[in-house]
Amino acid sequence: MLGFVLYLAACGLLTGSEAMYQTFTSPGEVNISSCPITYFGQRYEKVFVSLKANTFAFCFTDAFSPGSSNNCILMSGGPADRGELEVFSRVIPFGSGVHKLLPDLESVGECVNVIALKDNKEAEIQQVELGNFGSQAILGIKTFTGYPNSAVDAVSQVNGQTVSSETFQTAETINGVITDISGCRLSGVVYKTNTTDVPNTCSTVVCGPSGVARVVSKCGPMQRCQGGRCVQSSTCTVAASAVIDFSGRVHTVPDRCGYTLLSPGSIPGLKVHGLFKERRRADVSFLDRVVLKLDKGSVEVVLEQGRVKLNGKVLELNATAQEFSGVELSKDQMGATAKVSSSSHAVTVFFDGDKALIQITGPKGTVQGLCGDNSGDFSGEKASEYSSSGCEVQHTDPADTNVDCGAATKWCNLLKQAPFSACNVHIDPEPFITACNKTLCEYPAVDGLKCKSLETYAMLCGRTGNVTLEDWRKKTGCSAQPSCQDKVCSDHEFCGELHIGGRPRCLCRAIFASKYRSENSYGEPTVCEHKSATVKLASCLLAEHGIDSSVLHLNDQTCRGEKDEETHMVKFHFDNRNTCGTVVQANDSRVIYKNTIMTQNVSTHGSIYRHDHMHVDFSCYYNQPDVKSMAVKLKHSAVDQHITSGAWSYNLTMKGYIDPQLSTPIESSTGIDLDERIWVELKTEGLDENLVHVVTQSCWATEQPSPDGTLRYNLIVNGCPNPADDTVRVENNGKTTHNQFSFNSFQFSGSTGDVYLHCKVQLCVKEGNNCEPTCHRSGRWRRSIMSGSNDENPALISMAWTS
User: In CATH, what is the architecture of 639-801?
Assistant: First the structure.
């Protein structure tokens, strides 16, 4: 070893001048900000000097204290109790003798801190020099005649732990010696500038001159480390739309179709498919479920969010693996696992609703699918039987202003920092950083998505690298999220958070919800049929507005929605048997049945409530029938008239009989004599008798098919018998959905042709007995309020007879 500063001066290399001069006593704090030192990857601008008879300590974080987690250089000492600092700048050009002595130095020396240590008589005992070589540093030691020991011990400590220890004889130090104090720090471990083998990890740590350490694995892309040696084993990771294959390549699924992830030649007949769907955005897909298909026995295992199906049947599983049709299945709070084995290989699939880890073990063999030996050709890997029609259609959603790609990149790069860096030797973080950036630069950081990106890597470290990343959640602020494992959503839903930090619930997928959001609707239109009204609302649409479907009811609070366990659509219903408080109204054109879906008036939580109020009206109606005529000769068979209008339909018929029991209808062969008694029934089918009645408003006869014939004879006027004809009788008019009248047959004077009968019929909303005409001797029909019934739009039905 040659001298340091003295050697440089003698060789004419000490070209700078003192930039700073400072004196101190023990213990003393020395300012080296004009020539800072990078000590094992960390930069320092102060040195705390402690001078004792047996030990000189030069510390960088605090004053020396035995046993503390300090960063110090400790040397055997002498009688020095004071000192002075001189700084020399720009003194060591590249290629000088120092670089020849310390070939690992790869930077130009910028400056040197020269610390002279003296006793109380100002006699120099020892000289310590700290040289700045950029991200590296050197230590120089020189002793003088007052130094009492035969050797100098120099110990470098980081966080209180010894990194290196060297001993120099005074025969060397009297001329000056130098040594390298450069190094790196990685996951709490300190490395010297060099390449260091890490025991039992199949890897080395390379500490470069920049002070940054990197881990280099000795295993190939299809291998993992086991017991310090590389063995064949691979894991394919699928998260959001990213597929990280066995070789570490990243593929992005472009749509919402099903794809073959794995088809191993080592287990014939096995295929693993991934089905992708959208969530909040239509243009970003996420892995929705995983399917294992085995040709042998036609077995299909579906791993879904919160449940596992075998050939369409939901299984009850726990953490203990059970075998079903050659597949080992288990499920816990983390997710579901399926395993298929052969004599030499095993495929294990884990799925938790967000990510899938697909591991294959055994001798190397051919592997097809997006996880294996493919070229990234998605068209060739599409699983048509698991791809819905139109799944390949590309959508473009408006940019989300909440997406911060710069912040996302910074976040994803945490995978290269402690504590994740402890796993970098086992699993290359770059593909996971790429996948993380891809997702978070296109999709808002909701539903715990940021932390799930880190969780995927952490879980893979534990499963395939056997590395536990301690406190990674605490260090990143990623608290454990409420689990979706017990939340089963429908096909048009996904499990997410309505608000950040909220409990998980089933939310609407973007494409499903778009048609309803554009119409500001909660669900499907009202279905009116068979005297009933039905409305189906999507519970996920209600959830978006903070509405719990379980608190909704109709006008009658006992009438609540029925939730379909599979689709999660909530059905509200009323009919003529259970009106659920339906309000019936009428106007000039319609009879309307209206009900309301609403929230409870009384909170179930006392003086507060946590859901929005809701008030949604829905209705069905009968149109008041149009005026229509149909002439039928009475001597022929009776004719039905079918009137369909509005959302509900009903039949209106008029039939003639020759007996009061209405058992013998008038047929085409029936002869009708003059003054013979005829009974006529007006009857409807399809009306709700509890709420609507039928009123025969008027009936008359003409000699022509038209109701406006020249000759006219009235039988019923204003709902009452014609007072001028005492043969006319009217029964049940306005009392129900049918009525009848009778009269004696006749013929028009001067005519021998057919006689045509016409009637006008009116629907009436029943309110008490308001639909029944009150007939006085004058024949007038007196009514109270008829709820919209009027004389302008009655139904006209006609028939004819030949005397």
Answer: Sandwich (2.60)
